[in-house]
From TrEMBL:
The keyword NAD applies. SUPFAM superfamilies: Dehydroquinate synthase-like. The keyword Amino-acid biosynthesis applies. Pfam families: DHQ_synthase, DHQS_C. Residues 196-306 form the 3-dehydroquinate synthase C-terminal domain. InterPro entries: Dehydroquinate_synthase, DHQS/DOIS_N, DHQS_C. GO terms for molecular function: 3-dehydroquinate synthase activity. Residues 64-174 form the 3-dehydroquinate synthase N-terminal domain. It comes from Streptomyces lavendulae. Its cofactor is NAD(+). GO terms for biological process: amino acid biosynthetic process; aromatic amino acid family biosynthetic process. The lineage of its organism: Bacteria, Bacillati, Actinomycetota, Actinomycetes, Kitasatosporales. Keywords: Amino-acid biosynthesis, Aromatic amino acid biosynthesis, Lyase, NAD. This is MitP.
Amino acid sequence: MQQPHHSRVDVELGERSYPVHVGPGVRHLLPGIVASLGAHRAAVVTARPPDLVPDPGVPALIVRARDGERHKTLATVEDLCRKFTTFGITRHDVVVSCGGGSTTDTVGLAAALHHRGVPVVHLPTTLLAQVDASVGGKTAVNLPEGKNLVGAYWQPKAVLCDTTYLQTLPAEEWVNGYGEIARCHFIGAGDLRGLAVHDQVTASLRLKASVVAADERDTGLRHILNYGHTLGHALETATGFGLRHGLGVAIGTVFAGRLAEALGRIGADRAREHTEVVRHYGLPDSLPGNTDITELVALMRHDKKATSGLTFVLDGPSGVELVSGIPEDVVLRTLAAMPRGTA
């Protein structure tokens, strides 16, 4: 029987389907999940104190992770895989991640590569990781040239979004997570403003699960999940990952509205709605003051979606879609017209 205030969202991918549990205390489902996998050992990679991770019920290696985009590197993945090897982790075992989105991304990639694929279970501990990063099977690390440029698709066996983890988050981590929730407003989740956090997380996950089930490997529909991300990722890279992901996505969401208006895809009211939603969540709607817009355009050309010139996910008369071949001068003009701040 489902416990009060617990939700379950299923990511339907045939034999690779898996549940996402949301609610207080759901991390304690971990030993049962590990047992159902028949794992002999577990490697637990955690950015939170080890006592916040339940005993997986099998002999376990505890590895301290360093959360943050600067640690999302191939060197970190190699270090993890070597530790897995020393402990004897094989395909018959399980890897568990516990931390924010950078931890689930990096540990997920290590699990995907070790022995060509070891089962992984995610325990996301930040709002951003719970509403987005831990679900969908995208794993990746960064290069100096850009974010998430080296990765693999590797679906978890389960995701446990324990909302009690959120109680200790600093204010900046809440705002960071709201960046992903704000962009959901424009891609089909509806207006989530005013809902309880549990309901915002669950609604965001239901949307993502339905999109991933329809387009696991980003060949079409899944592009909508990258709303606001093209500029957001460029800003993260340009600032040496000093600008947090959710804040970059929020600025990118405002820009997406302005660019869609500049291209005649939406009207002024819909473009203003982007700013209103972003501001509601306490997110920035302006470019960092020292931003070089020509550098941003160069970085956006490296975006994984940019196979046919500058490419953005944009709102329009038929809804949100991937738009390629956007003229550089329009992008530059729209960037130049963005307000400047200190974010």
